[in-house]
Amino acid sequence: MKMKISSSHTHQEPRAQQSYQLSNSNYVQVRAYRTKDLQNCRDIFTQGMVQLISLVLRVVFPRYIWLSSASSLFVLVLVVLFQWTSTAFYLYILTCAIALSMLYIHVYIECWKFINSCLATDLRDIEKTYMTNDGCHMWVAEWSGKVVGMVGLVHNESHKPGVAELQRMSVSPACRRMGIARKLLDELLNYAKDKRLERLVLTTTNAQTPAIRLYKKYGFKLVAVFLHPYKTLSDLQYQCFELHLRENDFTNRKSMQSR
């Protein structure tokens, strides 16, 4: 009987947690950025990007692990065939381990370079970057009195008229899977339509699969792919998406009519 009770609780807890998250997501308020939100937004962005390091490693590491494993097996065969000392094999294994460690450090440094670059540019003065120019805006998601998410929209001289770029979409790791990203994106799209923007663009990496799934659900289309400039990170891709707002409205209306 004890085993049955334990099993029952094991199945009920995730459901209860999911129900709790869904019910509390209704209390999330999306509002315009305020000056006092600066440090919270910087912290949320940094936390999200630090978690990205592990996602990038999942993309980059497999190829090098496979190469290391295959080459180690080849060296082992050579050791057996030519009766080399086992020290040669162990030295090769050590070399592979050092190479993989250096790759990890390389990924870590590159990710932190990007984080520090963002913190030193547009996230240094969010109000100046996102809240003072027409077509630019920053929203935050507030839950239980705390800022737990953010997203920005930028239109500058590099963009054509009617085009703006989605940037800095990030949700606090402790508050994910609560629909917060969707609420932020809904608010951004409503703003873009009110401003009569024609197209939204964004750039992300193929490591950020949850974000990519969300963007695709909202109608964003992949339009370009660029490899990372470092050959060691060539498995990491920069993916460019765009959303034609008027075309998206027509598609949504057509979908509603078919129902």
From TrEMBL:
<keyword id="KW-0808">Transferase</keyword>
<dbReference type="InterPro" id="IPR000182">
    <property type="entry name" value="GNAT_dom"/>
</dbReference>
<dbReference type="InterPro" id="IPR050769">
    <property type="entry name" value="NAT_camello-type"/>
</dbReference>
<feature type="domain" description="N-acetyltransferase">
    <location>
        <begin position="98"/>
        <end position="243"/>
    </location>
</feature>
<feature type="transmembrane region" description="Helical">
    <location>
        <begin position="64"/>
        <end position="84"/>
    </location>
</feature>
<protein>
    <submittedName>
        <fullName>N-acetylaspartate synthetase</fullName>
    </submittedName>
</protein>
<keyword id="KW-0472">Membrane</keyword>
<keyword id="KW-1133">Transmembrane helix</keyword>
<dbReference type="GO" id="GO:0008080">
    <property type="term" value="F:N-acetyltransferase activity"/>
</dbReference>
<dbReference type="InterPro" id="IPR016181">
    <property type="entry name" value="Acyl_CoA_acyltransferase"/>
</dbReference>
<dbReference type="Pfam" id="PF00583">
    <property type="entry name" value="Acetyltransf_1"/>
</dbReference>
<feature type="transmembrane region" description="Helical">
    <location>
        <begin position="90"/>
        <end position="109"/>
    </location>
</feature>
<keyword id="KW-0812">Transmembrane</keyword>
